[in-house]
Amino acid sequence: MKEPRVITRRDFLRGTAGVALTVAFHSGISAMAQAEQKAKVVLIRNAEVLTVGGKVHGEILRNMLDEALRALLAESETLQAWHRLVKRSDVVGIKSNAWYKMPTPKELEVAIRKRLLDVGVAEKNIAIDDRGVLHNPVFLNSTALVNVRPVRTHHWSGVGSCLKNYIMFVPDPSAYHGEACSDLGKIWTYPLVQGKTRLNILSALQPQFYGRGAHFFDRRYVWPYKGLIVGTDPVAVDAVGARLLQVKRTAYFGEDRALDVPPIHITVADKKYHLGVSDLNRIDLIKLEWSKNGQGIHSQRTGSYHREVFPANLISTDHL
Q1: Residues in CB range of 254: below 8 A, 6 or more apart
Q2: Which pairs from 16-24 meet CB under 8 Å and 24+ separation?
Q3: Quick check: helix, strand or coil at residue 181?
Q4: Half-sphere exposure (CA, 13 Å, Cβ side) for 120?
Q5: Model confidence, pTM
Q6: Rg (the chain; Cα; Å)
Q7: What three-state secondary structure class fits 224?
Q8: pLDDT in tens, 157-193
């Protein structure tokens, strides 16, 4: 059998639809099987999760995570949903992101850790880490991972995503920067992480939607979206995050102003490594949001959100 062909930047620029068909052919996956595979992602927003100054309200954020997980797994009880993801006997690494200009919110790390404790995972079997995962005994012995980071533009990979977040699981991260980080999905096939990820969370509380150059950060291109993107499929979660940033750029600049590189690693993770669904048409997006009328604040405090379900390719400026 031929080895699957790597999708290149040139391929991506020619059009992802053609690339997808080509790679599917080479990998022996029928178009019919591709069409049948679908994913589900939850996008939840809450008007009160950030203060005017941008500080995170921890309790509201935890309630958002609870609500999102119940919707994702169609469970009425939060802990029942978590029990479907982790066992009491699991050793759980929470893979966070420590980039100092836009780290994973501590309140989100705390919320995840609390729920793991609530379902009975031993405290000694839970760790939160980013750049020390290769030396952290919990991660080295982990049986389950929770992947959480902010969504933002990224110089090497186009989008800082859940897939990108695992680059610290290899000793030579820069070796994966080539071809727009197209091979990030390969890291997910290594024994240290393969098959362990139970939940992927992109923090879209304050995403950065545009950037230029390495380590770029500019508050002009950060906006208080007040959201979380949650799913078990890392590719689908990242595809939704990338789409959201694209829509925001179009709204802000009047055009989709190009990133340093296109985020082709998302498509490659799907078509070559079969880690999930990158086609927005095949991602069912469950959108939970506070009501924008005068009754919204009351309803969000009771845990009631306005719910929409639609294909993720329909994310538009109406959802900003």
Answers
A1: none
A2: 16/267, 19/267, 19/271, 20/267, 20/270, 20/271, 20/279, 23/271, 23/272, 24/271
A3: helix
A4: 10
A5: 0.87
A6: 19
A7: coil
A8: 999 999 999 999 999 999 999 889 999 999 999 999 9
